[in-house]
Amino acid sequence: MNLYRLIFVLAGALGLAACTTSPTPSAAPPNTGATEGATIQISDPWARAMKMEGGAMSGMEQPTMAPASGSGYGGMEPTKAPEQGMEHGGHGGMDMEMGGANSAAYMVIRNTGSEADKLIAASTDVAKTVELHTVIEEGGVMRMRQVEGGIDIPANGQVELKPGGFHVMLIGLTRDLNAGDKVELTLTFEKAGQIPVTAEVRQP
Q1: Alpha helices of the chain — where are they, by DSSP H?
Q2: Residue 171: how many CA atoms within 13 Å on its side-chain side?
Q3: Do residues 47 and 103 make contact, with C-beta atoms less than 8 angstroms apart?
Q4: Cα–Cα distance for residue pair 165/106, rounded to 1 Å
């Protein structure tokens, strides 16, 4: 009888231990820019090499504005657009000359989710102002325009930011961008939130 009693006590103790053991919490998912329906992936980010002109304080202001029709800048356009002046060669047969203490960042943004997302802002410590821009043709002249409302990233699709098209404009550089340097950017998406990106500085 003692043996049966011992077996019964041990079985009860094991059952109690199993009931009181707390489950191991699952690890939090990494921050990959994923939300309910949008998952953003950034590939091949790079920024255009550019040297500041005349020392640390020159060229820091934003481009001079002049009245112009159309969208962007609230009806204004730069008289010295940093990506003004089309020329052949470089990227897809077209390149844009940068001027002043301004640069631009490019990349491929892919949305692997089932819902569309939108790039609505960007920031960096290497420029005083960061804007989302595109290039359009007006009267046979290529003009740079600020993108109103953000850049749409379709579900299960991608958008390439490249010279002559969408790009992240870096206005008023705070330091030289030499080939091989790294630029830290933070991209803000409507659904995916903020995603940090490290862009390599290249000489086109």
Answers
A1: 2-20
A2: 18
A3: yes
A4: 10
pLDDT (0 to 100) of residue 81: 38
Pairing mode of beta strands 102-111, 151-153: unpaired
Query: Which SS3 state, helix, strand or coil, does residue 194 take?
Result: strand
**CA–CA–CA angle 159, 165, 127 (5° rounding):** 95
pLDDT of residue 204: 84
Tokens of 140: 């046979």
Report residue 129 as tokens. Answer: 């102002």
CA 55 – CA 69 distance, rounded (Å): 35
**Angle formed at CA 98 by CA 178 and CA 166, multiple of 5 degrees:** 100
Which pLDDT belongs to residue 10? 56
* Both structure tokens of 33: 């820019």
Q: Give the C-alpha separation, 77 to 65, whole Å.
A: 5
Burial class from Cβ neighbours inside 10 Å (0-12, 13-18, 19+) for residue 3 reads exposed
pTM above 0.85, yes or no: no
More confident residue, 85 or 48: 48
In angstroms, the CA 19 to CA 172 distance is: 63
CA–CA distances in Å: residue 9 to residues 3, 14, 21: 10, 9, 19
Could you give the C-alpha distances from 48 to 16, 138, 153, 179, in angstroms and in order? 66, 25, 23, 8
